[in-house]
Amino acid sequence: MTALPTEYKHETLGAVAAERLSALVRIPTVSSRDEREVDHAAFRRFADALRAVYPRVHSVLERETVGGHGLLYRWRGASETRPVVLMAHQDVVPVVAEDWAGDPFSGEIRDGAVHGRGTLDDKGSLVAVLDAVETLLAEGFTPPQDVWLSFGADEEVGGTCAQVAVDGLRQHGITPWLVLDEGGAVATGAFPGVDAPIAVVGVAEKGIADIELVTTALGGHASTPARGGATARLARAVVRVDRHPFPTSLPAPTVEMLATLAPHAVGPIGSVLRLLLRLGALRPSAGGAPGRPDVVGRLTAPLRALLARLLGASDPETSAMVRTTVAVTQLQGSPGANVVAASARARLNVRIAPGSSVDAVVSRLRRVVRDPAVSVTAIASDDPSPVAPTDGEQFALLRAAVGEAYPEAVVTPYVMLGSSDARRFHAVWPHVYRFSPFAMTREQRWSIHGAGEHLTVDALGRGVVFYRTLLRILPS
């Protein structure tokens, strides 16, 4: 194991953490919905590796296993009044090896970065948390509050580890003052017109639904096909879904994000945002005083609607900020090239914007498909999470920690586009946030769940600085 550094600058911290991350990436902790496909030995090796590379953590903190391979640590602090939960997950998604230039589980350190599946999602965060704790323990530091570390092992498949951890904390009588999971990042090229790095802190996350379209018809030999069969009807339904995207809207966290970015935006988009800011259109609706209409909200509603439509017509990342999205991810027809399908199905992955719901999504999709012969069914789903406040001590604490690691970044709330284990915590406790303290380019963000995933050593070191700062400045 690399010796602990004597100076705690991000360059030195990053070099040490990179070696640990490299070793952990080489352990292929791939999760699957099919229990038979899970390599349980890999998860056991991962837990053993954590014990080996973080000796101080494992000599001081209490550790228990939850939900199979999930890990829950307790670091007893000077007080139990405001416990904090820091989260990450051990598991990664499968790889398509031929899409990678090299071994996707190499953990190779080259060109100033650690390469491999899980570096960004989410072993990098796990390493940054544990390196922060390990180095603070080396200094003899005791946190002002109890700190819990929750590292699930089935986040990528929407598993049970996080819920078991929530249930365990509740049984301990723990009410977290702050929960922080993976989520936003210090992003560049994330918003049109803004060149400054943006530290986007998720205060909510979209809902998620796996929805299945299924239709049946008379099958048979491919030499005697009938028109309008199952595959044709399914294709028509899929095209209708693709041609009718969900309408755009600006939920409160997105409005706050736009107001935060307005002073930093350049070009036409900057001018528009600053105009809307002056007009009062970039603020959550106050709702008016009791018995009185919200005059500002009524006057600026058309401007906000226009802005939402403009953003919705932008690149996919920006468009996803302002609407419910639908991705057609799986298609299934007949079992053979010369067989007419007796049934055909499509799987849709839907990310549900705040203010909507699973039921509303299913109802709209049925209207769009317009075919009673095509069933539309939610297979697995979660509604959007609640919205965490941005006007309290918790968000101010996150802002301060970001400022220490990335002083040039603009900190803003946003709605997380993906889903995370944090939604299990947010269903119970209000102050749940989502932020991965790493600088990420657009290319890196697209590599998550794709090929070429990598985390720079510089960003990893800054992530350790972020967590060290967060733990040091917790209120007494």
TrEMBL record:
Coiled-coil segments: none
Ranges for domain Peptidase M20 dimerisation: 203-374
A matching Pfam family: M20_dimer
InterPro entries from the UniProt entry: Bact_exopeptidase_dim_dom, Pept_M20A, Peptidase_M20, Peptidase_M20_dimer
GO BP, one annotated term: proteolysis
Keywords in alphabetical order: Hydrolase, Metal-binding, Protease, Zinc
Tagged with keyword Metal-binding: yes
One Gene Ontology molecular-function label: peptidase activity
Family listed: Belongs to the peptidase M20A family.
Protein name: M20/M25/M40 family metallo-hydrolase
Species of origin: Antribacter soli
